[in-house]
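The following record pairs a protein chain with its ligand, magnesium ion.
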Amino acid sequence: MKEACGVFGVYAPGRQVAQLTFDGLYALQHRGQESAGMAVSDGETITVVKDMGLVATVFDERTLSGLIGHLAIGHTRYSTHGSSDWTNAQPAYRPVGRAGFALGHNGNLTETDVLVERAGMLPGMTVSDSDVVAGLLASAFPGSAGDPETGELAGVLEAVVPELVGAFSFVLMDATHLYGVRDPNGFRPLCLGRLGPADRPEGWVLASESPALDVIGATLVRELVPGEMVVIGPGGVRSVRLFSTDEVDDRLCIFEFVYFARPDTRLHGIEVHGARRRMGELLARQAPVDADMVMAVPESGVPAAEGYAKESGIPYGQGLVKNRYIGRTFIDPDHQARVSAVRRKLNPLRDNIESKRLVVVDDSIVRSTTIRSVVAMLREAGAAEVHLRVSSPPFAWPCFYGIDTPTREELLAANMSIAEMERYLGADSLAYITLDNLKAAIGPPEAGYCDACLTGEYPVKVPLTLEVAPAPPGRTGGVLQGALPGV
Ligand code: 5GP
Ligand code: SF4
Ligand code: MG
């Protein structure tokens, strides 16, 4: 089970933490649309409410007003594999210690099998890797009674987290404290915010992305550093490093910048929207073309298309209208369903397109369902030429760190050369941004990224033997041999 989710947590005595968590989760809805949940503590009891569906469907006024406490965590889940039912919705809760604890996870562990055994769970009994972590933490509880001053979970986390391998940004809570944990590679984002003024804080907030702080009037303090745990309670915020310096290697997912994060999010101190615009600018310099209009595949292609237009001097225009009531088309399991979903989602603006030479910018091509349908639609609507420009390099390797990707067989760039793709997509030209330009567009130069889906260089061991043969002539990646379990 892989998860690419949104997590949120708030410690704020005297405030309506359930309402704050609702607002924070609403701002993180794009990270997970399958289920939503929150856990609230009043110091004695933890109450968990979770269900399938969007944040606004799961929680109404009545539910929220019944959730009283000073401390809460929340989760939006975007399951990418296996069953998607209520039992997998988060937060996960375990009734151990004084009042139990709750956990929300964004990421994907890569060595779940070993951990299942260690947690004393039966293989096949567990449903998600987040469940395995909850089990491991619960089984470590009796040995460490915990101190109500520092929080019950702190010692347990210090003992258990260093054994975990893979991608994880966790928010956790026991009855009295809020905890945030980021894996030593920092694959998934997690930031700390403050309610109230710096000299008189009224509360503390954890969130996958900074807009979740903005919407509740919190100030971004900083991003957690890879391998860091923060413990938040009556005494304020305490920071603990759970890994030694040689285990820490900053590898924030580069796709957070390309696609996944909101444009108004700050990552590595950079606003994502500006990075996406610069990707378009560098792409225009790298792969110029004579054309009449630059357009985006909405929504995610818009900032890069604006950047391309600015740099090239070609006017920016809208060529497609997006039905904003349709969510993700990407994760539909069968091809035909994905194709019709794209048609339902995007419709051409004929008068804007007819007889024009178009530059069409999108953030990524994965299976190519989206861009292939888009090219066909634009041609039907009378486009004279269609030049595709992509603001990420060819996506040729599956992700094992918390983002849904199909098997290598389904990844377009793993199976075709650029010239073959151009023909297959029906485009007049096709160009991808180079990895160097992508990194230059993001900056800062000293920051580290994961780019495994673009390069095949996995920073953390993945759950299969990667026997990489040399790339066949004209192909972008090597050939991955062997089955891909769990992808
Ligand atoms: P494709 O249609 O080629 O399989 O997927 C690429 C399109 O799906 C792009 O328009 C991108 O914005 C969107 N997309 C939706 N979810 C994801 C995701 O998790 N990763 C990536 N790379 N693209 C996604
Ligand atoms: Fe992100 Fe790609 Fe790395 Fe997965 S493999 S964490 S999508 S950069
Ligand atoms: Mg898109």
